[in-house]
Amino acid sequence: QTVVTQEPSVSVSPGGTVTLTCALNSDSVSTSYYPSWYQQTPGQAPRTLIHSTNIRSSGVPDRFSGSILGNKAALTITGAQADDESDYYCVLYMRSGTSWVFGGGTKLTVL
Amino acid sequence: EVQLVESGGGLIQPGGSLRLSCAASGFTVSGSYMSWVRQAPGRGLEWVSVIYSSGNTYYVDSVKGRFTISRDNSKNTLYLQMNSLRAEDTAVYYCARGVRGYYDFWGQGTRVTVSS
Question: Among B12, B40, B56, B110, which residue's CB has the most CB atoms within a 10 Å radius?
Fold first, then answer.
């Protein structure tokens, strides 16, 4: 079974930098999994932040960046703001093209 | 402007059926790949199904044989036919447009509650 793992919760101070990660149980995450990241606040639809590992979607502030760190995908927020407090999900596109797998999500607290 | 508007959710008894719709505007569903993603109460997002522009369809294991994704090109609408519903299918269901391995536009979701 394919499992994508994210930190359940992370906290950061306002103005600080935080990195969220996305791991795959069966393989190292690489660009061929087209890792993407989504932000979701309670009661709202997901918002696309990063796609294809490190490409910011339209309108996303440049304090959000994506990368591969070691064998994981990573989302880094530089200069965190209060309204960054949200749930963040990564998703990997399986190479077979037959499915996507979401991580369990990371709840980010800015305090 | 791209828009996705889901409808069709509601309260349904276990074993029942429901059809969700996702009306698209600003692009053609037949030219894109479209997915359904769900979120159970208090839980994370779960990919459910995809239909490619070719018409090929795929499903998460937990809904195979029970759910069917389809589209009506004339109505520019995506559907999810859900049969033999279970309590664990209770969730908000989102439709999303896919492009190059990710989802760029999402609907606002429609809530499905499976309960007696």
Answer: B110
